[in-house]
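Entry type: protein chain
Record version: 2
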Amino acid sequence: MQKVGLAWLICMSTLAHLLPCQGLFRRSGASTDHDSSMTTRIFFALLAVSLVFAGTACRSHKKGKMSNTPVAEMEAGFKQRWVDKRSAELAAFGVAADAAREQAAREFRTQFEYISSQK
């Protein structure tokens, strides 16, 4: 998308700089057929170049579904860290390690029920 925007900006700014200058170089009484045909040619040439860039940029993007793997990995990592921390807190209060881990897992499920890694 950035390539398309840049190509379009370059083409349109070039065209904008060329169009106002035409009136400065006309001689009085000179025919404007040549000037208007030149403007038309420049405009369509720049339009063609911008369309080529647009087509190239559109084809360069890969089509496909986004993977949920990074999100699932992040959620699983969060769950692991949270349960480990809570288990350590419970163990510090004198709860057995297995019981502390089970209780921490239960608390995680109730507190973070919206996290998809639990399903």
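Comment: Helices lie at 2-21, 33-60, 69-92, 97-111.
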